[in-house]
Specification:
Blueprint: H1 14-33, E1 43-50, E2 56-63, H2 67-79, H3 81-91, E3 99-104, H4 107-131
Parallel strand pairs: 2-3
Antiparallel strand pairs: 1-2
Length: about 130
């Protein structure tokens, strides 16, 4: 799993950013090693946004696979949110453990698509230059 650290947005304090990073790191590990839901396939936890009172967190996940598999993965993650929050609470030293809401992030999917387009254009250019 890949962990991406976002740049510090304006108005967000260092402590909140550290907690968000820790949530991403811990959830990545919990999903990979402890979550047994068969609906959850290969997924990358991309980021998290935590409310200032730490009561809720929006977790961005990028599932791999076709559309149906991605939907099932997101359903599985949301279904396991209580378990994941509980496990997160055991690992993190915070007063509160946030309620988790999972949101599908398509940035990796988009990056793969752009990479394929670039490869196709490069191949076309090579064929064109070979014919001349």
């Amino acid at each position: 799993m890949t962990v991406m650290i976002p740049q510090r947005p304006a108005g967000k304090n260092q402590r909140l950013m550290r907690i968000e990073h820790e949530i991403v790191r811990e959830l990545s590990e919990i999903v990979r090693e402890e979550l047994k839901d068969p609906r959850v396939g290969f997924v990358t936890i991309v980021g998290a946004e935590v409310s200032p009172d730490l009561r809720s967190a929006r977790v961005y996940a990028s599932p791999m696979g076709d559309e149906r598999a991605a939907r099932e993965t997101m359903r599985g993650l949301q279904s396991a949110a209580g378990f994941l929050s509980s496990e997160l609470g055991k690992r993190m030293q915070t007063r509160r453990t946030p309620h988790l809401t999972f949101v599908r992030d398509r940035s990796i999917e988009h990056g793969v698509r752009v990479s394929h387009i670039i490869d196709e254009v490069r191949k076309r250019d090579e064929r064109k230059n070979g014919e001349q």
